[in-house]
Amino acid sequence: MTRRSALPLLSLLLTVAPVNAGPAVPATATPGSAAGPRVILISIDGLRPKTYLDPAAHGVELPHLQALMKRGAYAEAVEGVFPTVTYPSHTTLITGVRSATHGIFGNSYFQPDKAGPADWYWHTAAIRVPTLWHVAQQAGLTVANLSWPVSVGCPCDWNIPEIWDNSSPAQPDTMRILREHTVPPDLIDRIGADTEPWTDENYNINTLTRDLLAAQAAAWMIEEFRPHFFTIHLMEYDHFAHGEGPDGPQALQALEYADAAVGMIVEAVERAGLADDITIVVTGDHGFAAVERQVRPNEWLAEGGYLTVAEGKITGWRAQFFTSGAAAALLLRDVGDVELAAEIQADFERRLGAIPEADRPFDILTRQELDELEAFPVSPFGLALRPGWNVSKKVGAGFSGSDDGGTHGYPPSMPAMHAGLILAGRGIDPDGHAEQVSMVDIAPTIAALLGVELTQADGEPFVWALLPETVGAAGR
């Protein structure tokens, strides 16, 4: 082949046993040579619709996204799920349900007694309902994945999951860890023999061009395996937007690289002769907002005697906050202590009431409001950060302080948290357009395109985006 261009958590609090949706598929599948529907689902982490609706206003060029939009269907906004962070959102994208149902409550587990960073929700076994991967595989379709969140052990014929060395920000041992979970085990090396080989230095979230490397691999996999369903996650825009804000220079450069990556994937589809069979779905998982200030709600718990602190570390606790982006949820060591929960909520309401309205960093989300959002199922109450505020679980540094950069995690109704969506190709109405849609409808739409069903999904296929025969083929 020629070279191609370029919880382990506190289990009683946050988990129940995941649905046994089936083991990972052995790498015995043959390339998907049979004609029929195919879908490539591309996630650009943090994709804001206003960037592809008006690139010039942001000083960027996104020719490939705009080309897909002009020949396909698109939405001006996708309202996501709470918290509006990467792992719960990506799991909604492939299940059609919100986090309280699918079981991925944040990016990482709540592990208050773990030394070092908490583990992330890397493993598909944590998902409590069937995914698009499962139903596609069960329907006899071939499935490929590259860096989708919560994909270690997914029922995929070819799988390069998203997992890294979490021991330090430099992620020095990622390639070894990644190879241990790749299916088949030699896949990364096979790709590297025909494209640019991966290393800990270039396949690293801190590297601006990582998405281009991933796109090279995706193009190779499309031409080599011709999968019926392919998921790929492009993450660098999100990474740099956290550091410098959503319109920072490196963040916008990363967005242009993500657009170039989409172009590389489209070109691979054309080279493989699959253009008439494939639908390309490009979406985001959440929006982005700039931050100026940081709040540390565990400080109020310490002042109230609900946790103890020594040398800036929590040494004992009856309650503490689980943070997820710009959201936080109270967790109790004794999850059934309703009197303690009510006492802490009343204390927070009193303290919050003493702050002038314009200066309040967050609003309290009652258990009823969390139920309506289908989030944090064991939390007595949560915190919805107000615009401009970020949240930290730190203690010993005061209740609030300055911050910079960007974040997400705010309630999904906040316009800045809306994600993007473009669909083009097989089965798509080229005149399709919607002002605002729900993220839970994306997975059922992909299921309709593939001719399979997600029986547990809360949403419905996008009638506005699909040709009538596509909707009818799914029996809807």
Q: Would you state the CATH class of the largest domain? A: Alpha Beta
How many domains comprise the coordinates?
2
CA-based shape: globular
| Low-confidence blocks of residues | 1-28
- End-to-end Cα distance, whole Å, is 42 Å
The number of strands is 20
- The CATH topology of the largest domain corresponds to Alkaline Phosphatase, subunit A
Helicity level = 25-40%
Walkthrough of the structure:
31% of the residues lie in helices and 18% in strands. It is built from 16 helices and 20 strands. The chain has helices at residues 11-14, 49-53, 63-71, 86-95, 99-102, 132-138, 174-181, 187-194, 210-225, 236-244, 249-271, 298-303, 338-353, 367-373, 442-450, 468-473; strands at 38-44, 73-79, 143-146, 158-160, 229-234, 278-283, 289-290, 293-295, 307-310, 313-317, 319-323, 327-332, 362-365, 382-385, 389-391, 400-402, 406-407, 419-425, 433-434, 437-438. The strands form 5 sheets. Strands 1, 2, 3, 4, 5, 6, 18, 19 and 20 form a 9-stranded mixed sheet that branches. A 4-stranded antiparallel sheet has the order 11-12-14-13. Helix 10 runs antiparallel to helix 11. The longest helix has 23 residues, at 249-271. The radius of gyration is 22 Å and the shape is globular. The model is unreliable at 1-28 (pLDDT under 50).
Secondary-structure topology with pairs:
Layout: H1 11-14, E1 38-44, H2 49-53, H3 63-71, E2 73-79, H4 86-95, H5 99-102, H6 132-138, E3 143-146, E4 158-160, H7 174-181, H8 187-194, H9 210-225, E5 229-234, H10 236-244, H11 249-271, E6 278-283, E7 289-290, E8 293-295, H12 298-303, E9 307-310, E10 313-317, E11 319-323, E12 327-332, H13 338-353, E13 362-365, H14 367-373, E14 382-385, E15 389-391, E16 400-402, E17 406-407, E18 419-425, E19 433-434, E20 437-438, H15 442-450, H16 468-473
Parallel strand pairs: 1-5, 1-6, 2-19, 2-20, 3-4, 3-5, 8-15
Antiparallel strand pairs: 2-18, 6-18, 7-17, 8-16, 9-10, 11-12, 12-14, 13-14
Helix pairs in contact: 9-11, 10-11
